[in-house]
Design brief:
Number of strands: 7
Radius of gyration: 16 Å
CATH class: Alpha Beta
CATH superfamily: Vaccinia Virus protein VP39
CATH architecture: 3-Layer(aba) Sandwich
Oligomer: single chain
Number of domains: 1
Number of helices: 8
Order of helices and strands: HHHEHEHEEHEHHEE
Strand content: 15-25%
Strand order of the largest sheet: 3-2-1-4-5-7-6
């Protein structure tokens, strides 16, 4: 999921109860946010989809159901235990594959996927690797393919900025530089077009939809 070893260890230890913990902390808003992001991706029957930093595989399983038996979903995550949990929970879906992979390295796919989904992953990446991951995502998409990023709002408004910054200082101090990350500009530099953003929960979170070509 990320490169920082401390964060990798955290996700590794929390993998079995990660979804439950976030659902409880967010009073169910976490799952609703993910579902809305998947709806924004709008996976269709027979499509090929990539879940970047797929975690426990929950969102990937929803996408796999949407694309059907003739479709394909690949989940990539760096954390061994997350991949293990995902395989245990959703291994019955024959069109869904989970691979342990550092997404800052080449994905191994070019012009292949109709869509890419990633949630709460871009902010976790070391600052210097974020543009490169977006560039590799662009290369992995076929012409006309789309990408959905569901994450904290990097340019959060003043009212919500205080809450977001307090949360990051308490739990993700190493990722505070995300709030100076110009995500839309980095997407444009990678080659993406038609960038749409949808603020969620008083603008603390954001769903971004963008397209190749």
């Amino acid at each position: 999921m990320i490169l920082n070893q401390h964060r990798i260890d955290f996700f590794g230890k929390s993998a079995p109860y990660y979804d439950t913990l976030l659902d409880l902390i967010s009073l169910g808003q976490y799952a609703k946010f993910l579902k809305r992001a998947v709806e924004t991706l709008a996976p269709r029957k027979g499509e090929r989809m990539l879940d970047l930093c797929s975690g426990t595989g929950r969102a990937a399983s929803w996408v796999a159901t949407a694309v059907g038996d003739k479709g394909e979903v690949v989940g990539l995550d760096i954390t061994e235990s997350m991949v293990k949990v995902a395989r245990e929970r959703y291994g019955g879906l024959k069109n869904l594959t989970f691979l342990q992979k550092d997404v800052t390295k080449p994905f191994g796919y070019e012009n292949y996927f109709d869509g890419i989904f990633t949630s709460f992953a871009i902010h976790e990446l070391p600052e210097k690797h974020r543009p490169g991951v977006l560039e590799k995502s662009y290369l992995a998409l076929r012409e006309g393919g789309r990408m959905v990023i569901a994450d904290f709002h990097p340019q959060v408004s003043e009212k919500s900025k205080i809450i977001s910054h307090i949360f990051f200082k308490l739990f993700e101090r190493g990722n505070l530089n995300f709030f100076s990350f110009d995500q839309n500009e980095m997407l444009r530099r990678a080659g993406f077009k038609r960038i749409e953003t949808f603020p969620v929960l008083a603008g603390m979170f954001q769903i971004t939809l963008t397209q190749k070509g």
